[in-house]
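User: Sequence in, structure out. Go.
Assistant: Echoing your sequence, followed by the structure tokens.
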Amino acid sequence: MAAVAGTYKLAGKDKVTVNLVGSWNQTLLGTDLPRNFKISGKKLTVSFAAKGPTGQDILVTVNATRVE
């Protein structure tokens, strides 16, 4: 589970940086989170590297579909 809020800046066609003003993880407040994204039709895919609960490196992929 993760939830964040903030402003963002686009960098090129496939990168975004989110400046966090709200987060479920308070240690992230005020930080910038770089993310890769891809838009294909109505589908948005966001991916980024993170640490798993036991410290292992993981790749997180989030998919969202636009509903009209």
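User: And one key feature?
Assistant: The chain has one domain: 4-65.
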